[in-house]
Structure formats: structure tokens, C-alpha cells
Amino acid sequence: MKSVKQLISSTLVNEACGYLDKDPMANFPKLLNWAKKIVTKEQHKKDIEMFRNIVNDPNNNWNKLIQRYFKELNKNTQKKFLINFMVNAGMVGNPIIDKNKAKYNINIPWAILMDPTSSCNLKCTGCWAAEYSKTSSMDFETLDRIIRQGKELGIYMYIYSGGEPLMRKKDLLELARIHNDCMFLSFTNATLIDEEFAEEVEKVGNMGFAISVEGFEKETDMRRGKGTYQKVMKAMDILQKHGIIFGFSTCYHSKNTEVVGSYEYIDLMVKKGCKFGWYFTYIPIGKDAVTDLIATPEQREFMYHRVREIRETRPIFAMDFWNDGE
To answer: Omega into 163 within 30° of 0, i.e. cis?
Structure first.
């Protein structure tokens, strides 16, 4: 059952979405005004003012990303992202989390990451999933129970990894339907994304994807198998066609750092429809790990600076998994 604050928040955002449908960028300040009525934390209030400055500056790179959000995502995804991610996960859930932290004297995360299955349809060089049992899966009832309990704690963001989460795509769709107040993100190789699946994702609106890609065709197929790159490009085209939110997930290593850190690569990801991008560095796993793929110190320093340059120059939210926690 939704809390009173959630109901009020959802009502405000629903009303705001009506304005945004007409003239998104011109009416975005109204959404920020409503957001100020919802938030209680000082940091959130500062974030709202930061967004206000961005919206008022058409030359700002983040302004261009917001414009992409309204131009490229379908209306249902826009609405679910605003309500489920920005409001429920970003604002409404936080006071509930804080209350339960104090009540149980434990740390409670903002998001829960879980592996629906260890099974995968690819065998990528150096992937830790290759070390997992291929038959281990969480049953639907367990996944559902975790989400229900998570919401009681104030958690509305759920991330799937694996294995390949989309080996369970029917179950993931059903979970998204049941928990339509949450946002779900799957880290996926994207080879199982097709038109039929995208149509269902468009209907639920609260599923996003971080698609594994290692550079261009040569670099991607080197680790993921011949033909994988073309399947990834096709999947991105399908998701973009349906206005579904997605981004890239790239592991940089000794053989591809200069490629995945190039503006040519980033510009392609933007063109294909990515709204965000995750960068991870290669970590050797297991007794037979391929150690010559470890990025050099110079390559890691290059990526540290390049990710920050991308944020300032390209309309995509680039994230550095290893260094953004500093």
C-alpha cells in the first residue's frame, strides 16, 4: 500500500507530467517547484536548485541530456522514471530508510542488487559469471519477497546482474508489473532483447538496461564472441525505437581502453540512444584468469580524467564505478 506521501507525490508528478507533455523544458521549473514541496533533506533542496540552474541554461551539457530525455523516451517511461526513480527512490524512500536505520541499528542501502540467475547464454573472456554454477537461480517467490521487504525498508530501486538476467525476462516483466512503484535496471548482454520483449517493456515503463559493450565490433567480439556486437547494436536500435531508457556498461582493459575512452565511441553510444554509461575496469577472476587484460596505471589514469571530460562535453551521464566513490 502506498504511503500518504507517495500518493501526494505521485499526484503532483502526474499533474506535472501534463505540463511537461505540452512544453517540457519551459514547464520543467514547475516540476521543480512541486519537488520542493516533497523533499525534506537539505541536500535534496540543493539538488533541486542545481537542476533549476541547468534548466535555465540551454548551453549546459546537462540541459541537453534532459532534452534528450523528453525527446527520445516514450511518455510512459518518462512518467515512471520521474515517479519511481526520482520521487519514490530519490525522495520518498529516504526518510523511510533513515527511520528504519535508527529502528534496527543497521545500514540500509538505497538500492538492492540481486542475481535472478547464474545462467548465461554467452561465455565472455574473464567474466566472473563463468565461475558460477549455471543452474543456480532465485525462484520468483524469493525475488518478489525481497522486493516487498525492500519497499517496507524504503528501497524502490532494484538492480539485476548475473549471469544474464534476461534469461528470466518473463519473470522480470511480471515483477515490474507487480511492483509498478519501483524502478528496475538490468545489466545485460542485450542479445535476448527483441521486438516482442521491447513492446512489453514499453508498456510497464519501469525497466531500464545497462548494455555490455566493449568498444566497436573488433573489441566487443574479442571478449564476447563473434557476432555479439551486431546483436548489441540491433538491441539498442530496438530499445531506442520503443523509447526505453538504457545505457552502456563497458569494461575497459589493456586492449580497449583507448577505444572506449574515445569521443568516437561515446558519440556512437549517444547516437544509438544511451542516456548513461558505466565504466568498469577489468579485474581477473579465478585460477585461470587472463591477467594480460589488466589495464595499466596509465590507462586507468586516462579513464579517470576522460570520464569527467565526457560529463562536461557530451549529453550522457558517464559513471566511473571505481573512482566515483572517492
So the answer is: yes
